[in-house]
Specification:
heterodimer, A: 251 residues, Rossmann fold, 4-stranded antiparallel β-sheet, 10 helices, B: 425 residues
Chain lengths: 251, 425
């Protein structure tokens, strides 16, 4: 599914190297987690994969089902099946949530040569999916993320994921700013989307999200590299001992 | 050369060979003599600092190529009473009968013969009042020389909007129209103005809104690239009256829209809004607004949004004057530009002048680019960059369009904006 080989990248304006050779291979249907201390490059990795401006890839590759991601515009990557759930979902005053969702769904369908959804069909689908995420009609009507609470914003991200049905989902610290109940709700939304053909990369600081979204593989990232890979027990080890031991092991 | 001399020379040159049209003689003579005293505007006038009036004051109208518009006429789907002027000349065949329930409509050219007292009394009066504290000589020029216009008297709730349609068919047409609207107590009327009108257009609209009456004004100034226009709306508001005006401007070499409102009765509401989109360094658009609060508990809003690219220039001069005793005034003013590149310019002069001590007035002015974070967010969901830019541009304009009460009218304007963005993407 997602194959990253020796990915290196700089922050454009500051001439600073953030990724120093990331290797990652996520198979179809797998859930991988990346943990790591602040500043290790986790979020940067998610931005570079989804095509945010401001970074320069200096080496390596990233492919989704064999297709070069790095060569595409962000919207083309989305149409190819990549989805990033933002750590800080952006507020867009003046654009209704519903308009936004329909524009996105239909833009992707169009890009893939599929027929656009009619307003009626779209409405039916979005209402059903919103209901399971406890998103009410008012949230759908309001401008995108404007005035949403932290929990509402994250649920809105998962609703977008549910509507767009991507192959490869990256969750960038989706648990940040959520209380326990909100986190459970979001995790349930994610788990409902797990399937054989859909893979997840969960970026998080804390083990507790991984209690709810159970990973197959856990990676530890530090200083722009994956320094250790293991099973779910690796996340528990971090939770109990912090990163210090792991970092000194490598050094 | 001193500015005064420059101005009097320019005024003489402009008026050479012109004679006052028949009818409304007293008002026209009065306007003519006021004009000679104040002189036509010059770019060295403070009020014309950001917009050079030369092409508006020069003797002959600059040529403006005709634009073939292949879109359906504005507000085509709306049931409305159409009154058509081609280069300022009334077109009876293209117009509907000037009759509708709750309203009488007369051409300005027929007012003298029809002996409509209120119109004779109103003509030029609000324009003259609007000359202080700032002179607006082009409006006075209009009062003296306007060739025609429409006189509307709303006596009840007028069933459908009245649409003045201004067509442009002559590359050198130089047109002055002057219209009057009187809205009786409790009455309500919607006036639509659409189309480019002429190579050079000077319009005056005087609106007298009585107690508890409502006046809605929605305007779209046509897509002709080379046209020039200076428009003036003077309004007087009685107690508990409502005044709402929205203008959409596409293209145009030079557009200056002045709106001057006096809130004379308590609890009156005045909203003036505008959206303009300009592409290229031959686009210059100026909104000049002056709202005077002279009564209790008045509410005024000014909401102006401009989208500018490739060297387009936008100007906003907006003032709220709260007179002594106009307590509990609630004034709001916002002017914003979306600059789609580094070449475009937005010049804003927001002003508040307040002589009452118990009022709430807020104002803001911003210039900015498209929000890159929002753009990336939309793109990351699969929306192509251009579509995302257009969506964000419409979102930027949304606050001004929300000032239009009638959804069908607003939807038509939104669709035109989408079309413009698709063509100028």
């Amino acid at each position: 599914m997602l194959e990253i080989i020796g990915l290196m990248a700089d922050l454009q304006d500051e001439d600073k190297t953030i990724l120093k050779g990331v290797n990652l291979n996520i198979g179809a249907g797998e859930v991988h987690a990346i943990m790591g201390p602040n500043g290790s490059g986790k979020s940067t990795l998610s931005y570079i994969l989804s095509g945010k401006d401001g970074y320069e890839v200096t080496g390596g590759s990233a492919t989704l089902d064999g297709v070069d991601l790095l060569d595409m515009e962000p919207d083309e990557r989305a149409a190819a099946g990549l989805f990033l759930a933002f750590q800080y979902p952006v507020e867009i005053p003046g654009v209704g949530n519903m308009t936004f969702l329909r524009t996105a769904v239909n833009a992707q369908r169009k890009a893939r040569g599929e027929e656009e959804l009619s307003a009626g069909d779209f409405l039916k689908i979005v209402r059903a999916k919103a209901k399971t995420l406890h998103i009410d009609a008012d949230m759908l009507k309001r401008p995108v993320n404007v005035g949403f609470s932290g929990g509402e914003k994250k649920r809105n991200e998962i609703l977008q994921m549910a509507m767009l049905e991507p192959k490869m989902c990256i969750l960038d610290e989706t648990d940040s700013g959520l209380d326990v109940d909100a986190m459970k709700l979001v995790a349930e939304g994610v788990n409902a989307l797990r399937s054989e053909g859909r893979s997840f990369l969960v970026i998080t600081h804390y083990q507790r999200l991984l209690d709810h979204i159970k990973p197959d593989v856990v990676h530890i990232m530090a200083d722009g590299r994956i320094i250790k890979t293991g099973g779910p027990e690796l996340a528990l080890e971090v939770e109990n001992n912090g990163y210090a031991d792991l970092l000194s092991e490598v050094a | 050369m001193a500015v005064a001399k420059l101005k009097s020379d320019a005024t003489e040159a402009r008026l050479a060979g012109m004679s006052l049209p028949a009818g409304l003689d007293v008002a026209r003579k009065d306007a003519s003599s006021r004009l000679m005293t104040m002189g036509l505007p010059h770019k060295r006038d403070e009020y014309w600092k950001y917009t050079d009036p030369a092409s508006l004051t020069q003797a002959d109208a600059p040529q403006a190529a005709l634009f073939h518009n292949d879109e359906a006429p504005m507000f085509d789907a709306v049931d409305r009473l159409k009154i058509v002027f081609v280069d300022g000349v009334f077109d009876a065949d293209a117009s509907d009968d000037l009759e509708a329930e709750g309203v009488t409509i007369t051409r300005l050219a027929d007012v003298a013969g029809a002996d409509i007292h209120w119109a004779t009394e109103l003509y030029g009066t609000l324009e003259a009042r609007g000359q202080t504290p700032v002179a607006r000589p082009l409006a006075t020029l209009n009062s003296a020389f306007a060739s025609d216009g429409v006189v509307i008297h709303a006596m009840g709730k007028v069933a459908k909007p009245i649409n003045l349609i201004y067509l442009h068919g002559d590359t050198g047409s130089d047109v002055m129209l002057h219209s009057l609207v009187k809205v009786d107590a409790g009455a309500e009327v919607t006036l639509l103005e659409t189309g480019p009108a002429a190579a050079r257009f000077n319009s005056v609209l005087e609106v007298d809104v009585a107690s508890g009456a409502a006046f809605h004004h929605v305007r779209s100034q046509g897509r002709d690239h080379e046209r020039r226009a200076v428009t003036h709306c003077f309004a007087k508001l009685a107690d508990q009256s409502l005044f709402k005006s929205f203008t959409l401007t596409f293209n145009g070499k030079l557009t200056r829209n002045e709106c001057i409102i006096e809130m004379l009765g308590d609890d009156a509401v005045a909203h003036v809004a505008g959206a303009c989109v300009g592409d290229g360094d031959d686009f210059h658009h100026d909104d000049t607004v002056f709202i005077t609060h002279d009564a209790l508990n008045g509410e005024s809003r000014q909401v102006f949004k401009k989208v500018l690219r490739n060297g387009a220039v936008g100007v906003f001069q907006g003032k709220i004057l709260v007179k002594e005793g106009a307590q509990k005034t609630d004034g709001y003013q916002i002017s914003q530009s979306l600059l789609l590149d580094d070449d475009s310019q937005f010049l804003a002069k927001p002003e508040l002048e307040i002589y009452a001590d118990d009022v709430a007035c807020s104002h803001g002015s911003t210039s900015g680019a498209i929000d890159e974070d929002a753009l990336f967010y939309l793109q990351s969901r699969g929306v192509p960059r251009q579509t995302a830019t257009n969506l964000l541009t419409l979102a930027f304009l949304a606050e001004s369009l929300e000032e239009i009460a009638d959804e069908a009218l607003a939807d038509d304007l939104r669709a035109r904006l989408e079309g413009w963005m698709a063509r100028h993407g």
